[in-house]
Amino acid sequence: MSPFWKIFIAIFSYISAIVGLGLAVVNASEKPPATSLAIVYGAAGLLFLAVGVLLSRRARY
User: Fold this and answer.
1) What is the DSSP string of 16-57?
2) Radius of gyration for the chain, computed over Cα atoms and rounded to the nearest angstrom
3) How many whole angstroms separate alpha carbon 57 and alpha carbon 39?
4) pLDDT digit string (tens) for 18-54?
5) Residue 29 — φ and ψ, nearest 5°?
6) pTM of the predicted model over 0.90
7) Based on the number of CB atoms within 10 Å of its own CB, is 3 exposed (0-12), middle (13-18) or buried (19 or more)?
8) Which residues, in sequence order, are CB contacts of 20 under 8 Å at separation 6+?
9) What is the dihedral of CA 23, 17, 8, 60, to 10 degrees?
10) CA 18, 15, 42, 36 torsion: positive or negative?
């Protein structure tokens, strides 16, 4: 994969992680809480965060 696409997907993943975790907090703090949506958004946010971290790591030789 070229460095351009790697950086592009990493940035997209970080932004998606922030949005997902933010939506999880918003849905969990509603009255009554939308727990199932909060769990789904939180899990998606954590998954995107992991992808972003893995793509932005430096290669170790």
Assistant:
1) HHHHHHHHHHHHHTSSS--HHHHHHHHHHHHHHHHHHHHHHS
2) 14
3) 27
4) 999 999 999 988 888 788 888 999 999 999 999 999 9
5) -95, 5
6) no
7) exposed
8) 41, 42, 44, 45, 46, 48
9) 180
10) positive
